[in-house]
């Protein structure tokens, strides 16, 4: 696991985001941080900054990996943010709802993470700054089983490494 | 004179069981002098009762199992009885405690209680060395169907009981039993959003559960090697999800194959020489085979779509797998070297996790529709689909070694905050009856039934 040290405070944030095999699914359940006002607490270029001021995740329709206009807008902000902080490397984790089989969903989560990665690369982010992983249906953000929870769990989550 | 030929098969399979350190010796017992002379060909055919599995499904075989004796003997009696009752094909009868012991059974009294077979055993010795003498009788004819003496250390009593239950199953039904087997699975605990998963293994009846990994990393999909004491599984160790081999004897783990992406969904070839699995490449997933000797890797598919969950036919000539190359996840079959694939699933909804029966005649699968999940079977040409069980989530079917029973994972839906979610193991006869839970400590998923120990 590698860290790009942005300063002492940023390092603390990065360590908090990467301990053990903790998945990247550590953001808010709503993932709507981008619409919030910038918070003074988030260190620029940190995980907290990404979550609060950019938006760390995009959502997918059932069984799909197509990027909606809303998802593209989030990724556009991520690309701009990554251009602003060129030291930062990120991991994109693909996730699925639990309405698929265990193994197929690993592949589907990978496909979602890959779609987000490809979009960022097309927007000029260096490919070697992005790693991808898939947790299939094993790391749901929302732990219920209804349409709303499933919609939240079909995502690709970007986190600072 | 009367060394039963039937003992030979038992001996060849398990006579010198020692690979797992069990140290069990099995020797044929002479027929009791008073017993009717065994018929010449009795080792070849089914048991003296000549009952088929289909018949036993509708009319379980009434069998008397008088106590094998105090202590270990009584515990063995319970394990044998639980195995036989649990498979749904036998009906153990209530027998007076005084009925135990050796000698020629009082057939008239057993016939009076409706027994078709009598499983008779005695135990002697203790601790360091235990001798178990076992005889199986046809209660109607008085014929001795089997006579075997097992010598082992006292700690192996449970395993001897399973071996005896297998002998009874085989002699009565003409089909190998599956009680001397284990089930590997993923133990699941903690919050659903970040479940603690451990690779685990237990006897098929839920006894002797052992955790194999610490829970530090997410682990998935254990699969048994057909002959070695080894498991292939997927681990997220160091946050790099990959297929590993786990040596059950030494506990040693090693990464299998060199892949840039995620490797997952491993299954051993029937001869144990290779592992077929999938690995991500870009947004797709391809199927690869890794030779366990040379570690050479060969790609079998390159559709650009998701190709995963490969499983060999028992003769090793074909591979059934899951692919969304046609738009939605369906089942396909291709040759073991790749090439053209033909779709075999055509029902509504999605299909996944196909697994080929050890008998070769069926493929079990998970099907997902608007109403939830189901597990079914179909012939390898896609005909004759039958749904065996349904649920909010039922998936990951795995065949027992004789192909008569499937174990699988059953999960309930979660309410707000994850309340109400449960994940457990269950099993069902492939005829769709005798569905029951396999008890595990805590949550469990992704079962894999071992081959017969041997």
Number of strands of chain B: 31
Q: Estimate the strand proportion of chain B.
A: 35-45%
Most extensive chain contact?
A: A-B, 34 and 52 residues
Mean pLDDT of chain A: 82
Q: How many runs of DSSP E, i.e. beta strands of chain A?
A: 4
**CATH A-level architecture of chain A:** 2-Layer Sandwich
CATH topology of chain A: 60s Ribosomal Protein L30, Chain: A
**What's the total helix number of chain B?**
5
CATH superfamily grouping of the largest domain in chain B? TolB, C-terminal domain
How would you sum up the global shape of chain B? Answer: globular
Please, how many domains of chain B?
A: 2
CATH architecture of the largest domain in chain B: 6 Propeller
C-alpha-based Rg of chain B, rounded = 23 Å
Cα separation of the termini of chain B: 28 Å
What structural class do the secondary elements of chain B suggest? Answer: mainly beta
The CATH topology of the largest domain in chain B: Neuraminidase
InterPro entries (chain B): 6-blade_b-propeller_TolB-like, TAT_signal, Tol-Pal_TolB, TolB_N, WD40
Subunit structure (chain B): The Tol-Pal system is composed of five core proteins: the inner membrane proteins TolA, TolQ and TolR, the periplasmic protein TolB and the outer membrane protein Pal. They form a network linking the inner and outer membranes and the peptidoglycan layer.
Protein name (chain B): Tol-Pal system protein TolB
Family (chain B): Belongs to the TolB family.
């Amino acid at each position: 696991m590698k860290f790009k040290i942005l300063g002492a405070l940023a390092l603390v944030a990065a360590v908090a985001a990467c301990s053990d095999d903790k998945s990247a699914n550590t953001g808010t359940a709503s993932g709507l941080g981008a619409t919030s006002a910038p918070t003074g607490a988030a260190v620029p270029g940190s995980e907290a900054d990404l979550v609060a001021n950019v938006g760390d995740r995009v959502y997918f329709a059932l069984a799909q990996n197509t990027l909606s206009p809303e998802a593209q807008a989030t990724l556009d902000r991520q690309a701009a943010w990554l251009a602003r902080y060129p030291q930062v490397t990120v991991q994109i984790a693909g996730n699925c709802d639990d309405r698929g089989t265990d193994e197929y969903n690993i592949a589907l989560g990978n496909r979602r993470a890959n779609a987000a990665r490809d979009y960022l690369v097309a927007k000029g982010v260096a490919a070697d700054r992005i790693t991808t992983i898939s947790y299939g249906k094993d790391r749901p953000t929302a732990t219920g089983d209804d349409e709303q929870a499933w919609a939240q769990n079909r995502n690709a989550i970007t986190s600072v490494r | 004179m009367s060394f039963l030929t039937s003992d030979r098969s038992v001996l060849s399979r398990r006579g010198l069981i020692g690979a797992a350190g069990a140290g069990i010796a099995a020797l044929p017992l002479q027929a009791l002098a008073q017993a009717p002379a065994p018929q010449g060909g009795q080792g070849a055919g089914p048991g003296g009762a000549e009952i088929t599995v289909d018949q036993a499904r509708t009319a379980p075989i009434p069998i008397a199992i008088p106590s094998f004796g105090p202590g270990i003997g009584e515990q063995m009696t319970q394990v044998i009885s639980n195995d036989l009752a649990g498979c749904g094909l036998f009906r153990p009868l209530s027998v007076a405690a005084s009925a135990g012991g050796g000698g020629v059974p009082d057939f008239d009294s057993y016939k009076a209680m409706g027994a078709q077979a009598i499983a008779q055993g005695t135990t002697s010795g203790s601790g360091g060395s235990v001798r178990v003498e076992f005889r199986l009788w046809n209660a109607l004819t008085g014929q001795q169907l089997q006579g075997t003496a097992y010598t082992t250390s006292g700690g192996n009593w449970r395993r001897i009981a399973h071996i005896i239950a297998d002998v009874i199953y085989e002699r009565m039904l003409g089909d190998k039993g599956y009680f001397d087997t284990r089930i590997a699975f993923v133990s699941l605990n903690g919050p659903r959003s970040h479940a603690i998963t451990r690779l685990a293994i237990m006897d098929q009846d839920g006894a002797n559960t052992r955790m194999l990994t610490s829970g530090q990393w997410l682990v998935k999909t254990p699969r048994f090697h057909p002959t070695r004491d080894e498991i292939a599984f997927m681990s997220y160790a160091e946050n790099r999800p990959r297929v590993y081999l786990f040596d059950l004897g030494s506990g040693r783990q090693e990464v299998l194959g060199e892949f840039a992406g995620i490797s997952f969904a491993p299954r051993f070839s029937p001869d144990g020489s290779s592992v077929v699995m999938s690995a991500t490449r870009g947004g797709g997933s391809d199927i690869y085979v890794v030779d366990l000797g040379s570690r050479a890797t060969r790609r079998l598919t390159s559709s650009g779509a998701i190709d995963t969950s490969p499983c060999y036919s028992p003769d090793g000539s074909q591979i059934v797998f899951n692919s969304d190359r046609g738009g939605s996840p369906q089942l396909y079959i291709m040759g073991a070297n790749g090439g053209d694939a033909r779709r075999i699933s055509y029902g509504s909804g999605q299909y996944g996790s196909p697994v080929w029966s050890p008998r070769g005649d069926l493929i079990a699968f998970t099907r997902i529709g608007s109403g939830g999940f189901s597990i079914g079977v179909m012939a390898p040409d896609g005909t004759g689909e039958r749904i065996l069980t349904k649920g909010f989530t039922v998936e990951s079917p795995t065949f027992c070694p004789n192909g008569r029973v499937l174990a699988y994972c059953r999960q309930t839906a979660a309410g707000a905050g994850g309340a109400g979610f449960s994940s457990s193991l269950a099993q069902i006869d492939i005829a769709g009856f005798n569905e029951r839970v396999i008890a595990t400590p805590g949550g469990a998923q992704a079962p894999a039934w071992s081959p017969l120990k041997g």
